[in-house]
């Protein structure tokens, strides 16, 4: 049975007003959904003199980061981070690939930052645009046909199947009604097909991270009808209704949009910030010891950057690395969160690729260091 112990200077409930002169730190298991202790410390845990080794937080700006599929229409997205459960890549595809693609290694979650286009697949056609998710099940034959030339998408391939996580006591309508998930329409596909010309049609299949090609003497998007529960779908971020509390910073996992084994996709959407006088007005310092944290700034609902949070700033904080609010945030907490963040948590330790390391912001972890007057 879970037992709560308490010693020394504490408060009655976590994330209330911190005791004078202290900084609350959460030592948390299972991504803040499991056991947790709060430590009330005399110093911010981010007030380090230096950090050595791969535990340091890292950062990269993806907004104008080159991607191989920008110029090469046959290329795959450019991978930045990977582990056994997932890989995260960026795509800047401006011309459709001259083939259909089938990922037989896992599911694919695409979050469109900029640009719009049409998904054509076995199940029909589906328009996509900025700040929208596409979830494409393993084994689907598909093709993305961009309508725009300035495009940026985050592409996450998971080893296990992606689904909507259990909402528990929240019920069916938070953080979004399942009914807003749009699926492709077959009627348009019958007129459009894959958009490729014969006499031979190619399907590129990825299995074991190796590519093969299957060729047909007909357009493989020849489906006359379909039924079942395996299909791509789209979620618009504007349909997310974030769970909020005026009295507490709700745990990140409350914002879970999708999940696969070992991977959480949490979408932090614009919302009120905790404003009760008795509440802590910042996120507590924390060690999320079971997960690596990726945070990507997606900008405002209008697609604009936010001061100090440029669109495409991606940060990676390894599990167990202490982090938390800076001195400026402590002095001037937000009244409202005005932007979107994509937070991907991975149970396995992430490995940055050479594409990441070549472009990463030098000494980014220094930005995470607490400097300035304390409490
Ligand atoms: Fe965190």
TrEMBL record:
Q: Does the keyword Oxidoreductase apply?
A: yes
Map out region (Disordered) in residue numbers: 51-73
Pfam families attached here?
Answer: HgmA_N (PF20510)
Keywords of the record, alphabetical order, are: Dioxygenase, Iron, Metal-binding, Oxidoreductase
Task: Answer yes or no on keyword Oxidoreductase.
Answer: yes
InterPro entries tied to this protein: HgmA_N, Homogentis_dOase, RmlC_Cupin_sf
Q: Which SUPFAM superfamilies match?
A: RmlC-like cupins
Domain Homogentisate 1,2-dioxygenase N-terminal, which positions? Answer: 100-235
Q: What is this protein called?
A: Homogentisate 1,2-dioxygenase
